[in-house]
Amino acid sequence: MALRWCLAATVFAAAWAMGRAGVPVGVAATAAGLFGLAGVAVMAGLSSRRGMMVHCTAFCPMGAVGNLLGRIAPWRLRVGPGCTRCGACLAVCRYNALDARRLEAGRPALSCTLCRDCIGACRHGAMRLTLPGVSPAVAWRAFAVLAAVLHAVFLNVARM
Asked: Per CATH, which fold does 73-159 belong to?
């Protein structure tokens, strides 16, 4: 985790410093492209080999910011009392957010992206998405609607 935050700080500081120093856009774009290629190398080398999103959980600076912002979102993934510790959720968690200790604590690690793969894998119905004041079913629908709307908005903005 510390490596990722150091990397994030370095990337953001480098971008800020290049902007302040008047570095030509082509040079800055080349630096960004090389960093992106390093991310692709991490994806190809580590993520595919381990079957988990190493590039998101250990490399990507925006993933670190996203995880931090996820702490202020009202949705939470919770492990309910029906959990038998069968490990089905551990096998599908690609973000290294679940382990035996986290199951005992009843919640995933900061690296959880709310992908909800664990909910589908849990045969005991112990994994659930929560939103204060509403049922898990309403929380699920609200999350799905918000995610779809945000994706549509960002895709439209990208087209501009």
From this structure: Alpha-Beta Plaits (3.30.70)
